[in-house]
């Protein structure tokens, strides 16, 4: 399906997308308790170390699937300029893209290039999504060009496609200084065992995986393995393909959520994910600057401890 038809189809369903072929929550009711009021966050956004180097990374980033697959008009791009600007202002860094995401890489490259010296604030992550060594090299070179990068912060093998071949190339490029970190991704629980084996081999710096308050298969062994073997974790599908917002539609946020500085359902779901210490960064996507600010809010304030996590789980399971 072409990007135009895909976008219109998703809009007709009330859905838009992020990360690795997933829906974000930014188009769903309940995103913010009051989106007309700009939130204020105290202090700096929470950061966690990339296990292989100790480099600190803010815990909330940005996915670009569908949301950044737009044309060149100001009508399409101005909201995205604001999203990136506000993300930088709040301290967010990680921008995750892929050749799979249509024009998203090029749009990220164009808009960050417009920011001049501020473009280097961001942590650029993209993927290789093809088969064969030569085709992988060609595609990765194209990604560098589209994103206006001489060095890519993170190159990942998208959905494990021909991952052994691409990791060989990526390891060589890492030695040459073309890329800083390597990773593998997937968005389905059926791939968790294979991701875990790669993690245990310490073949990569990052693993990107689906995880949410109602999709916790990664908790069983993949996330613990990543923590034990020094592999950073990026979380996609934090809202279970939008099912979480359907689940809480019309329901008020529980008053006790404020005990951990949770101001919206979106922050409720994100803070649950971030309360798992194995998680380095989560990448909700949006093209709405107000929603971006709400996303970033999950990186500020207190995070749930074990007993509070259980309370959150029980509440969602009863709905």
TrEMBL record:
Pfam families: Aldo_ket_red. Gene3D superfamilies: NADP-dependent oxidoreductase domain. Residues 60-304 form the NADP-dependent oxidoreductase domain. InterPro entries: AKR2_Oxidoreductase, NAD(P)_OxRdtase_dom_sf, NADP_OxRdtase_dom. This is Aldo/keto reductase. It comes from Negadavirga shengliensis. The lineage of its organism: Bacteria, Pseudomonadati, Bacteroidota, Cytophagia, Cytophagales.
